[in-house]
Amino acid sequence: MADINRNYDGFASNKCDSQWKVNKVRALHTMRDHREVERVYDEFAEYFDELVTSLEYCGPFFTSRTVSRIESKTDAKMLDVACGTGLVGDELHKLGYTQIVGTDLSQSSLDVLARKGSYTKSVHANFGPSTPLDFDDGYFDVAMSCGSFLPMHLNEKCLPEMIRLVRKGGYIIITTRKYIFEGETGDMKLRPGLIKLTQEGALTKMAHEENLYEKDGDDHVTGITLVYQVI
């Protein structure tokens, strides 16, 4: 595995080139277990926003604009799953949304999030079927996740808990890389998981939009934003 926990000083002083940054992001996608995920994001939290911004990471922008199209009430209850340092909530806050809860495995990332003031609450948790959040069924109007459906991060087994937490008629929004959605890598089987839940009558698919997700060297990675309604 590439070592992403070194040479922070070089990054902070802007001495590292774009390929160095691309390699760091790629390494985030190849971790082996949840303990490693937690450790790496904790150690990398203070630099994460600057890193992904330098790579023109647009996922939070597209996610927040999708929210604004489907939920106009700025006091609607939002859940940001695997929120990291809060980039999605920062965008939602700019649009006037005031009730945003974030949950993440990395406490250091949540500490960065808290300093920015966009979220009303943060929950340190490994989100999934065996660790339900302490909220009533249907508590939220919208649950979203941006950039976190990856091997050893979130996978399709997390979807039922997202559904439980959203009211009937509310929405689930997922923004991710197109190749992640279309492939089955490691523990990730997002597309068949969503198809199954739709066939079972738990969700209705509302939208599937492609976007320019982030830079990868001289190229751009294609992303998708998916919208499902809870029924």
How would you sum up this structure, described in words?
- The protein is of the alpha/beta class and 231 residues long.
- It folds into 2 domains: 8-54, no CATH class; 59-230, Rossmann fold (3-Layer(aba) Sandwich).
- It has helices spanning 8-12, 18-28, 34-54, 59-70, 87-94, 107-116, 159-165, 178-182, 190-199; strands spanning 78-81, 100-104, 121-124, 140-146, 166-177, 203-216, 219-230.
- The chain has a 7-stranded mixed sheet with strand order 3-2-1-4-5-7-6, with helices on both faces.
- Helix 2 runs antiparallel to helix 3 (34-54) and helix 4 (59-70) crosses helix 5.
- The protein is globular.
- It starts with 7 loop residues before the first helix and ends with a strand.
- Mean pLDDT is 87; it is low at 1-16.
Counting helices, strands and paired strands, the structural category is alpha/beta
Radius of gyration (Å): 17 Å
Name the CATH class of the largest domain: Alpha Beta
Structurally, the number of domains stands at 2
**Coarse shape:** globular
Q: How many beta-strand runs?
A: 7
How does CATH name the architecture of the largest domain?
3-Layer(aba) Sandwich
Helix-strand topology string: HHHHEHEHEEHEHHEE
Question: What share of the residues lie within helices?
Answer: 25-40%
CATH topology of the largest domain: Rossmann fold
The strand order across the widest sheet is: 3-2-1-4-5-7-6
| Count of alpha/pi helices | 9
The first-to-last residue Cα distance is 41 Å
How would you sum up the major sheet? 7 strands, mixed
Average of the residue pLDDT scores: 87
